[in-house]
Amino acid sequence: MASLKPVLARLASGATLSAEEAEAAFDIIMSGEATPAQIAGLLMAMRVRRETVAELTGAVRAMRARMASMAAPPDAVDVCGTGGDNAGTLNVSTAVTFVLAGCGVPVAKHGNRALSSQTGGADVLAALGVNVDVGLDRLPDVLTAARCVFLFAPRHHAALRHAAGPRVELGTRTIFNLLGPLANPAGVRRQLTGVNDPIWLRPMAETLHALGTERAWLVHGQGLDELTLAGPSQVVALHDGAYREFSVAPADAGLAHSPIEAIRGGDAATNAGALRALLHGEPGPYRDTVLLNAAAGLIVAGAVQDLRSGAVRAAEAIDNGSAAAALDKLQQATA
């Protein structure tokens, strides 16, 4: 039986792991062959000196090898974030999913229940009448019918249960907080990925490139794991192997500045009501935040060239009812 002990000895000496070594180590964890103490030791040894791109890459490969995957068209995108910003905002990436689908972009959204917010993607979707536990074999048909599908992380990554206890007991960020957005079960090659700490923008972009991603925006906005109206947001863009680092402001999309407090959320029912109102044309900071992020998603999808035209197209999808129709279709397809 494989053991983590040699790996722990190397990490204790300050060594880093190659992608192959990290993949083997995380496969041991996800196979259930490591003890809780060994898992906690590995996670903290990496955390205190900061995880490397090679370690992230190997860990994601191990996750992908054991996940319940699904087929998706080559132009499908994911919009999700690391969580962990503890801001308790309304659900932005979930709303963006319907806007992009309304624009004709297929979205395979990876998500979970509430972790750092009051209401996670799974929570608000359930409140909107979407069945997040629909059979895994039906997911490709759901995506075809609705142009969007929700991939509920615990169902696709059951092997992570072996690390759940140590993660809870440690009570601090570990590499697993970074892995979710990098391990989309549909194997998408295009992603809009929010990061709660800007130090991870470039490493996560490099990891996605190593894993075969074609286009991605890694974004951080004033403490949030998404683009914000509250000030400049930081972006690392990946496009066919080339990286570009820049900042974006609301004005770049023709939108007004607004404080983060303007999109504070509540429980699942509250957030679901706000999302439904947004899809039916309600103006305000929540709509504008979604337009900004949807514009970035359209750039990643290759549908537009800049944020301003992306925001216009996103607004059209809301105002002509296409975004609301995507939600209705998702409800029907998952019934």
Care to give the gist of this entry?
By secondary structure, the protein is an alpha/beta fold. The chain has 15 helices and seven strands.
Q: What does this protein look like?
A:
By secondary structure, the protein is of the alpha/beta class. The chain has helices at residues 5-12, 19-30, 36-49, 53-66, 92-102, 121-127, 139-146, 153-156, 161-170, 176-179, 201-210, 268-279, 285-300, 307-319, 322-333; strands spanning 77-81, 107-111, 148-152, 190-194, 215-221, 233-239, 242-248. The chain folds into two domains: 5-66, Transferase, Pyrimidine Nucleoside Phosphorylase, Chain C (Transferase, Pyrimidine Nucleoside Phosphorylase, Chain A, domain 3); 77-155 and 176-333, Nucleoside phosphorylase/phosphoribosyltransferase catalytic domain (Pyrimidine Nucleoside Phosphorylase, Chain A, domain 2, 3-Layer(aba) Sandwich), CATH 3.40.1030.10. Helix 7 packs antiparallel against helix 15. The radius of gyration is 19 Å and the shape is globular. The model has no long low-confidence stretch (mean pLDDT 95).
Key traits:
2 domains, five-stranded mixed sheet, Pyrimidine Nucleoside Phosphorylase, Chain A, domain 2, alpha/beta, 335 residues, single chain, two-stranded parallel sheet, 15 helices
Q: What topology does this entry show?
A:
Elements: H1 5-12, H2 19-30, H3 36-49, H4 53-66, E1 77-81, H5 92-102, E2 107-111, H6 121-127, H7 139-146, E3 148-152, H8 153-156, H9 161-170, H10 176-179, E4 190-194, H11 201-210, E5 215-221, E6 233-239, E7 242-248, H12 268-279, H13 285-300, H14 307-319, H15 322-333
Parallel strand pairs: 1-4, 2-3, 4-5
Antiparallel strand pairs: 5-6, 6-7
Helix pairs in contact: 1-3, 2-4, 3-9, 4-11, 5-13, 5-15, 6-12, 7-15, 13-14
